[in-house]
Amino acid sequence: MSSQPPLRAARARWRAKFTGYCRNELAASIAGGRGNVLAFISAEMGCIEYTGRIQNGVLDEAAAQDYAVTVYHLTGKNEEEIIRKLIGWRTAGVIFHIARLDAAPRIMKILDEQKIPYGTANLGNPRGIGVTTDDSRGMECAVEFLKQSGCRRAALLTHEDKSRQQAEYQKRRREGFRKGMKQHFPEAPETVFTLSPEQGKQAFQRSMDQILKKITGGGYDGILCDSDITAIELLQSAQTAGLKVPEAFSLIGYGNLGISSLMRPALTTLSQNFEEIGSMTTRFVIDAVRNGQSAEQERNLLLPVKLIIRDSTQKT
Questions:
Q1: How far is 28 from 233, CA to CA, in rounded Å?
Q2: Full pLDDT tens readout for the chain, 316 residues
Q3: 88: which residues sit within 8 A by CB, 6+ positions away?
Q4: Where would I find the beta strands (DSSP E) of the chain?
Q5: How far apart are CA 70 and CA 48, in angstroms?
Q6: Coil, strand or helix: which one is 224?
Q7: Selection from 264, 315, 273, 306 nearest residue 142 by Cα
């Protein structure tokens, strides 16, 4: 009789393996308190590809460590709804993909109170877990490349969102541009062109046309952009105006979007490993869950970026 329970357990394990049974982590978390359920919360970030690649990293790492993931989209008006679901699912940890730390203050306050670990993907977090790329160093390397390829005058093209607040990545890339210019173009001014928030297609095109006139009229032969999207918009506007890239000016984007290699000319860009960002953030959050660490314990990481040289820049 004493051997019967182990035998039943062995049979149950065999049946589970044979039928492909998987533990229902969502149900287990509700039944037994906080369990193996994480949440991924993302906001509007301007490009769905970046968010999707980060989410893929989150899902892959969570699955590898036997965690389920619930996914939420933060609109700015649904924090209370998300909080109710996080508490209802007995969520063990949270991964955010947001532009600024103040984008979800209510959710973070509740997580701190409940001692639920959370981390930010592609965003630094001085008071907790954060994984992003070394955008400042990446931009420095891009400025250095322009200098080595014979560029005489460089400028940065950035953009504002409707809130007119710069995201962390924009600040870091501008900092890297400033450092790079100081080191490699010490006699040149630090020129930054800024696209205003979109006010319709025609207004946006007028803004871009004005910047193109400043680029060509000012003798700028190297333009760095704070994102691939900005670079592609400039490339298309230049081609519409009859300008050839890189003959008129070398052009460098940031992010290595899938479409960047399909442009004509193919876009030189700085590549970020978004899947690794999502994976590492998830790994740190799971470590905090398992070790009983609070959200306030800092663990930040800067991943390197890589310059991908294509046809939109002059050859050295």
A1: 48
A2: 444 456 665 555 555 555 444 444 455 544 445 579 999 999 987 788 999 999 999 999 999 999 999 999 999 899 999 999 999 999 999 999 998 999 999 999 999 999 999 999 999 998 899 999 999 999 999 999 999 999 999 999 998 765 557 789 999 999 999 999 999 999 999 999 998 776 677 888 888 999 999 999 999 999 999 999 999 999 999 999 999 999 999 999 999 999 999 999 999 999 999 999 999 999 999 999 999 865 556 789 999 999 999 999 998 6
A3: 30
A4: 37-43, 68-74, 93-97, 118-121, 129-133, 154-159, 192-195, 222-225, 250-255, 268-271, 299-303, 306-308
A5: 18
A6: strand
A7: 306
Tell how many helices (H) and how many strands (E) occur in the chain.
Answer: 10, 12
Helix (H, G, I), strand (E, B) or coil at 73: strand
The pair of structure tokens assigned to 67 is: 């965690």
| Separation of CA 11 from chain center | 46
- In the 8-state DSSP scheme, what is residue 121? E
Domains within the chain, CATH numbers bracketed: 4-132+274-302 (3.40.50.2300), 135-272 (3.40.50.2300)
Find where tokens 């910047």 sit: 211
Backbone φ, ψ for residue 4 (5° rounding): -65, -45
Q: Which of 49, 98, 47 is nearest to 72 (CA)?
A: 98
Contact 176, 137 (CB under 8 A): yes
Rounded CA-CA distance 9/23 in Å is 15
The span from the first CA to the last CA of the chain, in angstroms, equals 81
pTM value?
0.85
Other Cβ atoms closer than 10 A to 171: 14
- The neighbour count for residue 314, using CB atoms within 10 Å, is 17
Count, residues in the chain: 316
Task: Pull the structure tokens for residue 8.
Answer: 């039943």
C-beta separation of 92 from 116 below 8 A: yes
